[in-house]
Design goal:
elongated; about 325 residues; alpha/beta; Glutamyl-tRNA Synthetase, domain 3
Length: about 325
């Protein structure tokens, strides 16, 4: 199907500049390779979804000129493009894994895993020590009786082999999931499908060839590649971009009120101001540049995309245009 990129925001609040820089990066990569650009709304974690957030995200992206070919408001061959409308698909994907004996019920809480004497630490944190992988039916019933209010989660049995890949930005990366992560959750104890599962299912079924996202998700990739392999699907290329920092050098977050586009727009900032700041924070244009997304697309090359230079970006609210 050729190059197919995507941006997959979560409607849990207003997009901050770090989110928007990832969106710009993903849009540029897909457009630079004459590919399709897909927008997918990742609202699978319903308790965290904020009313009106999805609509605000669509408005913000369009205002910046980051249009898409397929998405919640653009029909395409691989919809629906909203995760909460794809629950049946995720349930069917679990059955595929069950049929391969790659799932087991886990009765451990996060605290249980964290406090397990045998749980080592890997690149992504505490490694699941395999507590429930080989439980007998009687042992499962006993554990369920001890915690009748808690449903078991479902964990995926990771391979023992080394998983390696070439990231388009970060370079070579490898993990041994059994050693560095352990068996991981694909359906939570509250019955919600886990991110690691749904992102792989969606990218596979939507034919995504390239995934551009933040560097904080680099360590998630070997787990996702193990799932791609279990589903018999070739994984996409990955581009893990450096995270955008605020004017204090901290990672931007929806929780701490990092610059939202809505606020900046209300204060009179134009799309060219925001695109210029995002591009300059990656070393693609000079500081103070003002240009549209389309103009930036003409200026940069794929080599530029593969070699961004992460620079702390000042708050737009403190900049004078």
């Amino acid at each position: 199907m050729g190059v197919r990129g995507r941006y997959a925001p979560s409607p849990t609040g207003a997009l901050h500049l770090g989110n928007l820089r990832t969106a710009l990066f993903a849009w540029l990569q897909a457009r630079k390779e004459n590919g399709a650009f897909v927008l997918r709304m990742e609202d699978i974690d319903q308790p965290r979804v904020q009313e009106g957030s999805a609509e605000e995200i669509l408005s913000d992206l369009k205002w910046l000129g980051l249009t898409w070919d397929e998405g919640p408001d653009e029909d395409g061959p691989f919809g629906p493009y909203v995760q909460s409308e794809r629950l049946r698909i995720y349930e069917e994907s679990l059955q595929i894994l069950r049929d391969q004996d790659l799932l087991f019920r886990c009765y451990c809480s996060r605290r249980d895993v964290r406090e397990a004497a045998s749980a080592p630490h890997g690149p992504g944190g505490v490694v699941y020590p395999g507590t429930c992988r080989h439980l007998t039916a009687d042992e499962q019933r006993r554990l369920q009786a001890q915690r009748p209010e808690r449903n078991p989660s479902l964990r995926f049995i990771v391979p023992d082999d080394r998983v390696a890949f070439l990231d388009q930005i970060a370079g070579d990366y490898a993990e041994v999931p059994a050693r560095d992560v352990g068996d991981f959750i694909v359906r939570r104890s509250d019955s919600l499908f886990a991110y690691q599962l749904v992102v792989v299912v969606d990218d596979a079924l939507m034919g995504i060839s390239d995934v551009v996202r933040g560097a904080d998700l680099l360590t998630s990739t070997p787990r996702q590649m193990a799932l791609f392999d279990a589903f018999g699907v070739s994984p996409p290329r990955f581009w893990h971009a450096p995270l955008m920092l605020d004017h204090q050098g901290d990672r931007m977050s929806k929780r701490d009120g990092s610059d939202s586009l809505a606020l900046l727009r209300d204060q009179g900032y134009k799309p060219a101001d925001v695109i210029g700041l995002l591009a300059s924070s990656l070393g693609w244009v000079d500081k103070g540049s003002r240009l549209s997304a389309g103009e930036l697309l003409e200026e940069i090359t794929l080599d530029d995309l593969r070699a961004p230079s992460a620079r702390p970006a000042p708050s737009l609210r403190s900049e004078k245009l």
